[in-house]
Every structure is written in structure tokens, then in C-alpha cells.
Amino acid sequence: GKRQYDRDFLLGFQYMPACV
Amino acid sequence: KESVILEKVIKHSLQSRWALWFFKNVKSQPWQCNLRLVTTFNTVEDFWSLYTHIQLASKLSSGCDYSLFKDGIEPMWEDSRNKRGGRWLITLSKQQRHSDLDALWLETLLCLIGEAFDEYSEEVCGAVINIRAKGDKIAIWTRETENREAVTHIGKVYKERLGLSSKVVIGYQAHADTATKSSSLSKNKFVV
Predict the structure, then answer these.
(1) Quick check: A8 contacting B, CB < 8 Å?
(2) Contact B110 A18 (CB under 8 A)
(3) Residue among B10, B51, B114 whose CB faces A6 most closely
(4) In this structure, which of B28, B39, B171, B186 has its CB flanked by the most CB atoms within 10 Å?
(5) In chain A, which residue's Cα lies nearest the Cα of B8?
(6) DSSP letter string over B114-180?
(7) Does A9 reach chain B within 8 Å, measured CB to CB?
(8) B59 near B27, Cβ under 8 Å?
(9) Measuring CA to CA, which residue among A2, A6, B104, B118 is closest to residue B44?
(10) How large is the ipTM?
(11) Tens-place pLDDT, residues B96-109
């Protein structure tokens, strides 16, 4: 199926530390 | 090696790969030389690492644009995927650069990468933000003006996602019309 993401889900990743 | 494998497992893939373009107006150069591909990404995590490392739109100088397009589509009318299409255009007042611009652009980006337009997301080519002294503009570009149902669905969802009041009317203009007229005079093919 299509990968649909709502805004709250996407915003939840905003301040996650980047993978190194 | 393990962390590379782990990264692949835990990153969240987007439906499409997206390309960010930057335009800086240098009048001595032809238009296409002023347009640069910054990078492409196809995961939620890579979107944020890009977003947090680039200048906010409100901090760009006048004459600059950001464009986010599906990878393979160039952010210009002439591209075969754009030329029969048009754009839902949001025009902002000068004051809104400081109050609203960055939030509206981020919301636009989240609509794109999150495929917010349901079965019509395939109609979306990309989005553009123009930073201009006389007033900034944000637009979502779609591929086919004749797909009325898709275009109006995208417009309705977009207006709702931007949190615009029902009193505000936004218009959709065909690129073919914008290309032949002064953009401010282009007539709206649809409004929501």
C-alpha cells in the first residue's frame, strides 16, 4: 500500500538525533 | 557495519524520493544556471536532517526559491511532467514572512512527503516557495489541469492543512496561462 504519514507522525521525528 | 544495517531497518521510507532545489537570482547568468539541485532523500529521517541543516525560507534573500519535487521532475514549467499542469498558489503579505511563512512552507513539505492527498497524491509534482520583496509565494504544482477531481481534492486538503479560514479563497492556475501572462494576472481555473 501507499506510505502515507500524517503530520504528527512526521513531526515526531523532527528532533530525533541523527543516526551515526 | 552493524549501525549501517540498523539504520536501514529503522529508517522510515517515504512513498516517493524527493529532490530539493535552490534558486538564487544572479541576473548576469541564465535562469537555468541559477537553479541547483541540493540533494535527494526518501526517508522521514533524511528529510529532517536536511530540513534542520538548511536556512529557513524566511532567512533567504529576495529572489531566492526552494523547490521540492519528486525525483526526476525538474522544477520548471517546461518539464514534460509539469507542462500540462498548474499550481495552487498561496500569496502572502510582506508582514507574513515573519509570522507565517516558515510554518506554511513546512506544512506544505509535510503534505508532500506524507502523501496527504490520498489517491490523488500521484498528481502532485512538487512545491515551490518564492522569496520576493513584494510578497512571498508558496505553491503546490500538479501535473494535469484537466484532472478536475484530483486538482480540487488537492486544493481542499491543502487549504485545510494550512489552517486557512473558509473566508480565504485560494486559486489554481494553469502553467500554460502563467507562462504567457504576467503571473499576477493569470486567471484562476479553480478556486477553493
Answers:
(1) no
(2) no
(3) B114
(4) B186
(5) A19
(6) TTTTGGGGGGEEEEEEE--TT--EEEEEES-TT-HHHHHHHHHHHHHHTT--TT---EEEEHHHHHH
(7) yes
(8) no
(9) A6
(10) 0.87
(11) 999 999 999 999 99
